Records
---
Amino acid sequence: MDTKKRIIETALKLFNSNGSYTVTTRHIAAEMNISPGNLYYHFGNKEEIIRIILKGMIEEFNLFIRPAVYNPNLSGQFNDAISHTGKIMYNYRFFFMELYTLLEKDPVLKRIYMKIKQERDADFRAIFQFLEQTGIIEEPVSDEEFAIIKENAWTMAEFLLQSMYINRIKITPENIIKKFTNIIYMIRPYLKKEFREFIK
């Protein structure tokens, strides 16, 4: 494994364990048993490392979200989406626990994140259009309704781990999956009765 990839993986491990706010580039270098100069050869600062981590997380999400948009297997689509999302959120849990602080501290990271949200909005809309076209949804969802569903879903997803922490729910992949189901549940009333059983 090359040094740059090792730095990313080590940083992610330390951020998840201790919080990125307590971890410095010197901590990362020490954990890897390399000099700080070696680390700075690859990354200018900690913020740059976090940006690369975010992009890596999104790449993992894209591996299953994009193919799932036109998946005719409704039960498989939802189950896979929930399972993958729970695991990825756990693997990058520091980001969700510190979301507001990270975005406020680094304007570049915030621009990257907001661009990703815009791309996800298009994915969500495509999923709803697919459900409408295949007759899975009872009636077409208006733009106003979709905007509300999307906003509520984003809010719940972005602060899901913080809510779990506040309510003393252990942050594990299994528990994240259980809680994330609540987000998916919001679209259940829009489905025809024969399809509602897939979301419980």
Note: The chain has a mean pLDDT of 88.
---
Amino acid sequence: MKRPGKSLMEMLLLISILTVIMSLVATTLVAVFKTDRQIRQDLDQQTALARLGSKFRADAHAAAACQVGVECELTLADGRVIRYSAKDRKITREVRRGNSVEHRDAFLLPATATARFDLPAQSQGHLVRLSIQPAENSDRAYLTPVRPAIIDAAIGLGRRPEATP
């Protein structure tokens, strides 16, 4: 005579199989969420670099003069000064007229990024460069990787008259 119920061994086997399946699902979900977070951070970084590059080039093209040190100051013909500074995980763009700030932008970078402004020697003062590179010891698995970028911009390109033949 066959019993209609399940034996204790059958129930233990079923519980063991379900436990293995649930642990595989949980591990897969953790990996998917981690990958999603990394992709979002990389996309945010790409977007910030694209916006920064566009603004930086447009400002340099309109500039009449450029001074580079720890910060980059671009002086426009109309008297405005655009100051780029890099600190605390971000690059700040500040448009000033006299002592008042007309506009301020911030471009976020990964925590391990370093930014530097310089005037390349071979450009004879006609180019300004913004270099974004990973800091030392930034290759750890849990840190957001830095997308290296070099943004070169011609100073005064929008102001120069075209040569006549």
Note: Residues 20 and 150 are 49 Å apart (CA to CA).
